[in-house]
Every structure is written in C-alpha cells, then in structure tokens.
C-alpha cells in the first residue's frame, strides 16, 4: 500500500495529517520516544528508554516494509499541519485477514497530550479501517488503569466488550486488567 492509495479524507484534518513511516523522521522519533514520561512507561512497556537511533531506525524500516506489503501493522505518523512536527503514531493492526479483524493502537508525544489529537486520529483511523478493510471486528485494547486511552475509545464510539481481570502486568510489575473496546459492527 502507498499513502497515495488512501483517499485524502482519511489522511488529514485541520490540525494534523497522517504520513507513512519514513526514515527521514527517525531522529525526531528518537527524540520523541526519549522524552516519554511515567504515563507512557506504565502502559507501553516498549517505551522505557533510553532508545537508541539504530533500534528506532530498525523499527521504522520494519514499519515501512509492513506498510508497503500491507501486512501486520500499518503505522501512521501523526504530523502537525502548522509545525510539521511529529505528534505521535496510530497503527492499524491487521490481526486476522481471514475474518477480517483489526485493532487500533496509538501513542502521543508528551507535548501533544490534552489537545484532542488522539480522539480525532482515532476517529479518522476508524473511518479509514471501515472503508478500506471492511472489518468484521475492530477493537482497541488497553490497560485497565489507562484511563486516558479508555476515554479516547469511548469518545470515538467504541463499546467496552470485555474486562480481563488480572490479565497483564505493567512495566513496573503492577498487575492490571485488560480492557477490550470494540466498534459496534453487526
């Protein structure tokens, strides 16, 4: 898949636009990841740094490969329209093409939090997933204590389908539930 294959109404709004993964953003991604704080670290175990350029470049290359082959994880960079800075990432995980089933995953840069960016990005990615992949299952999975991520799912119209009690541990070893939100499909 090329970013140019996606209709433009799914790729931008007044605040930001989605961009395909690119090696030109590796240094900015590295700085963004290394600026993560405790909120990120508690719920995104991979976020604990320090991150190194070689690992970020390797991850970006894998994202580019997945994007071009349209498999596994389609990672979109969220880019501010005014500053052209990286605000975060939102991914569409192609979990089971036979169903088809997809999952959204996302994170924001510290300075982008609290501006409604992720709610808008989630709404756009949901619309894109429904239009391009026609999934029979579309979900968001989050830690039980991650109230901000859960609030995004609810604001976007996802419904709480399940709470898996004592299902995960966070980066600090604390036991938590897993919440599964699904898009209301028939």
Automatic annotation (TrEMBL):
- Name the UniProt key words of this record, in alphabetical order: Coiled coil
Tell me what this protein is called.
GNAT family N-acetyltransferase
Q: Does the entry feature the keyword Coiled coil, yes or no? A: yes
Q: The N-acetyltransferase domain covers which part of the protein?
A: 21-186
Give the coiled coil ranges.
53-80
**Pfam families in the cross-refs:** Acetyltransf_3 (PF13302)
Spell out the InterPro entries in the cross-references.
Acyl_CoA_acyltransferase, GNAT_dom, Ribosomal_N-acetyltransferase
Q: Record the organism.
A: Candidatus Pantoea multigeneris
Gene3D superfamilies membership: 3.40.630.30
């Amino acid at each position: 898949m090329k970013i140019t294959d996606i209709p433009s109404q799914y790729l931008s709004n007044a605040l930001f636009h989605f961009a395909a993964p690119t090696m030109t953003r590796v240094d900015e991604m590295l700085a963004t990841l290394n600026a993560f704080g405790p909120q990120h670290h508690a719920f995104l175990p991979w976020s604990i740094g320090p991150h190194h350029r070689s690992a970020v470049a390797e991850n970006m290359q894998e994202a580019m490969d997945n994007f071009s082959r349209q498999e596994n994880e389609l990672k979109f960079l969220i880019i501010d329209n005014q500053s052209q800075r990286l605000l975060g990432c939102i991914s569409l995980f192609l979990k089971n093409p036979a169903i088809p089933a997809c999952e959204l995953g996302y994170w924001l840069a510290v300075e982008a939090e609290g501006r409604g960016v992720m709610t808008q990005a989630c709404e756009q990615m949901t619309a894109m997933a429904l239009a391009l992949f026609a999934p029979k299952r579309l979900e968001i999975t989050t830690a039980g204590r991650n109230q901000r991520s859960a609030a995004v799912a609810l604001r976007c119209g996802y419904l709480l389908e399940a709470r898996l009690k004592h299902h995960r541990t966070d980066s600090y070893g604390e036991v938590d539930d897993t919440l599964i939100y699904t898009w209301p499909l028939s």
